[in-house]
Design brief:
The complex is a heterodimer of chains A (113) and B (112). By secondary structure, chain A is mainly β. Chain A has strands spanning 4-7, 10-13, 19-25, 31-38, 42-49, 56-57, 65-67, 73-78, 87-94, 103-104, 108-112. The radius of gyration of chain A is 13 Å and the shape is globular. The chains are: A mainly beta (113), B mainly beta (112).
Chain lengths: 113, 112
């Protein structure tokens, strides 16, 4: 039972490079989320999805794009990475809109030089 | 806007009791989550309060007052393994979905 899986776990990029973070969940959850976590800032919501084919902006969406072509996958893209995007990224999912408990992936540590 | 406040750091002694407070001002509020996060790991679920009052789960209890916009997490019989960050999160229901807005976390250090 894998739960929520994020790839890659670690990545180092140069400024201006692009990359995609993949989140996969095997729990048939409708809702999926991408958060970033920075020291002293807590978890901040980047984008989220309420179902296959839908996406919505969170608190800090600038510089990121997302896609939810399949229900089990939620992709986070950085088109032109900046040092300010150095962070730990967490994907999460939930099935129940009313109780909302999030199940988190293990995180992806991204460094932009 | 959404605003969630909790202390940045707390220190307590092994075997003691500690209370971590959280205040919130949000729209669309449905409930209050507490998560535990050890360094370098993902957050893990501790509790969820929708109704006012205290909910107890083993050594951990969580309290909610919706009228005061206030919650606390109570940890009893502290153990060294309880050293972690504790995240307070407001569960927000939007038009079509739901999301969690997190506080910055309280770093708890348990000492001998």
């Amino acid at each position: 039972n894998a739960g929520v899986t994020q790839t890659p776990k670690f990545r180092v990029l140069k400024t201006g490079q692009s990359m995609t973070l993949l989140c996969a969940q095997d729990m048939n959850h409708e809702y999926m989320y991408w958060y970033r976590q920075d020291p002293g800032m807590g978890l901040r919501l980047i984008h989220y999805s309420v179902g296959e084919g839908t996406t919505a902006k969170g608190e800090v969406p600038d510089g990121y794009n997302v896609s939810r072509l399949k229900k089990q996958n939620f992709l986070l893209g950085l088109e032109s990475a900046a040092p300010s995007q150095t962070s730990v990224y967490f994907c999460a999912s939930t099935q129940d809109r009313r109780t909302g408990e999030l199940f988190f992936g293990e995180g992806s540590r991204l460094t932009v030089l | 806007g959404q605003n969630i406040d909790q202390p940045t750091e707390m220190t307590a002694t092994e075997g003691a009791i500690v209370q971590i407070n959280c205040t919130y001002q949000t729209s669309g509020f449905n409930g209050l989550f507490w998560y535990q996060q050890h360094a370098g790991e993902a957050p893990t679920f501790l509790s969820y309060n929708v109704l006012d009052g205290l909910e107890e789960k083993g050594r951990f209890s969580s309290f909610l007052s919706r009228s005061k916009g206030y919650s606390y997490l109570l940890l009893k019989e502290l153990q060294m393994k309880d050293s972690a960050s504790y995240l307070c999160a407001a569960h927000i229901l939007t038009g079509g979905g739901n999301k969690l807005t997190f506080g910055t976390g309280t770093q708890l250090k348990v000492e001998l």
